[in-house]
Amino acid sequence: RMTQVRSSRMDLTLGMEAQWAAGVVLNGTTTFFGPNPRAYGHSGWGGSFGCADPQQRLAIGYVCNQMGPDLVGDVRARELCATLYACL
């Protein structure tokens, strides 16, 4: 039930369309949390993020020690996620 869509709309805080489930954003058509559309996660302002991909049995948690300018889609988090998927 955690990953059932609860809201699918323009998120005025994030400035993008988002599908929210129970406290997490569903990857859907984005690739914030890897290539799998069924992955989900949540980003923190400044670069920190966490995500899970049950199909790949993969979970990632990233906390940075220097805040970045992005509210969502921080380049460090995206590169880390892409690198981990490339290793699978």
Characterization of this structure:
By secondary structure, the chain is an alpha+beta fold. 15% of the residues lie in helices and 30% in strands. The chain is built from 1 helix and 6 strands, in the order ββββββα. The protein has a 6-stranded antiparallel β-sheet with strand order 1-2-3-4-5-6, with no helix packed on it. A hairpin with a 4-residue loop joins β1 (7-11) and β2. The relative contact order is 0.17. The model has no long low-confidence stretch (mean pLDDT 90).
Quick rundown:
The chain has 88 residues and is of the alpha+beta class. The chain is 15% helix and 30% strand.
Q: Give the oligomer, counting copies of the same chain as homo and different chains as hetero.
A: single chain
Instruction: Give the low-confidence spans.
Output: none
Strand order in space, largest sheet? 1-2-3-4-5-6
- Which word captures the global form? globular
Q: Give the overall average pLDDT.
A: 90
- Amino- and carboxy-terminal Cα gap: 27 Å
Q: What is the number of helices?
A: 1
Largest sheet: 6 strands, antiparallel
Number of strands: 6
Encode the helix/strand succession as letters.
EEEEEEH
The percentage of residues in β strands lies in 25-35%
Rg (CA only): 12 Å
Structural class by sheet pairing and helices = alpha+beta
Report the helical percentage.
Answer: 10-25%
